[in-house]
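Researcher: I'd like a candidate sequence for this fold, 286 residues long. If you have to choose between options at a position, lean toward the conservative one.
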């Protein structure tokens, strides 16, 4: 995979396909590799731009470099400029969980770079009391990673109820996910939690009403808190819709990749031809 050198980062990424660009942002403990099944399932006609975010995969930081939403946004702009995806061409942006929160951050702070946005299992920040509690939890979890090591943390993280739906894919798929998580480093994951965890994220709810590009907010039917977050986002963002995918939890695109690919294909096709309508809507995907 190619490496892009920045001032304080060696950004690992890959590009696949030809067509309008679609940038894919992975979740915490994952890497760009986690999108390969979705890419393989999607129809041809798209150029997939897939980085490893700071703290993850093969991307490496200089000592003391920040691992924050702003720093990752700068990395994305560096990558887009390198690939010729300028403010005229722009990109569709898709993000899952932590990557979904980053997508919302980019949409709020760099809207001129986007053609559309789709998030999976994401929210736009916690209320202050919950944010403070979460910051403490994220810091404690970062310390746990450093003390117990990568393997112990991956075992703990993979067993969280949030990811129970992945077990339905079978032991071979679960083993593949675990192997991908084991490609990370303790320092990288700890830095990501301390700099990009939900407790550190600045709430964006008041800024998202200015986002004009077509947006789709996806949640799994069994991921109740994020179904509520998707509905709240669609109530704020003017040209948006909610897609609830049945029989899935938090990791919709990995639990039911074919169903998610239908949602993504419909979103991208509509965004390519859309005129801003100012209306929101919702549907359920079987």
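Model: Candidate sequence:
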């Amino acid at each position: 995979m190619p490496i892009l050198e920045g001032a304080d980062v060696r950004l690992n990424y890959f590009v696949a396909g030809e067509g309008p660009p679609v940038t894919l942002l992975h979740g915490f403990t994952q890497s760009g590799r986690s999108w390969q099944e979705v890419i393989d399932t999607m129809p041809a006609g798209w150029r997939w731009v897939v980085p490893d975010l700071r703290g993850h995969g093969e991307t490496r930081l200089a000592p003391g470099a920040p691992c924050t939403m702003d720093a990752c946004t700068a990395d994305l702009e560096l990558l887009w400029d390198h690939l010729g995806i300028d403010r005229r061409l722009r990109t569709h942006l898709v993000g899952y969980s932590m990557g979904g929160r980053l997508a919302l951050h980019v949409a709020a702070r760099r809207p001129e770079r986007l053609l559309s946005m789709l998030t999976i299992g994401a929210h736009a920040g916690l209320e202050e009391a919950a944010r403070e509690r979460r910051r403490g939890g994220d810091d404690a979890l970062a310390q746990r990673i450093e003390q117990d090591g990568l393997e112990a943390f991956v075992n703990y993280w993979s067993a969280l109820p949030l990811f129970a739906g992945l077990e339905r894919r079978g032991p071979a798929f679960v083993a593949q996910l675990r192997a991908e998580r084991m490609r990370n480093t303790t320092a990288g994951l700890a830095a990501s939690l301390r700099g990009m965890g939900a407790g550190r994220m600045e709430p964006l709810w008041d800024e998202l009403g200015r986002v004009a590009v077509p947006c789709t907010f996806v949640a799994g039917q069994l991921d109740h808190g994020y179904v509520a977050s998707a509905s709240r986002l669609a109530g704020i963002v003017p040209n948006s819709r909610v897609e609830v995918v049945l029989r899935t939890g938090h990791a919709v695109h990995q639990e039911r990749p074919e169903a998610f690919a239908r949602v993504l294909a419909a979103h991208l096709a509509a965004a390519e031809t859309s005129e801003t309508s100012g209306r929101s809507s919702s549907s359920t995907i079987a």
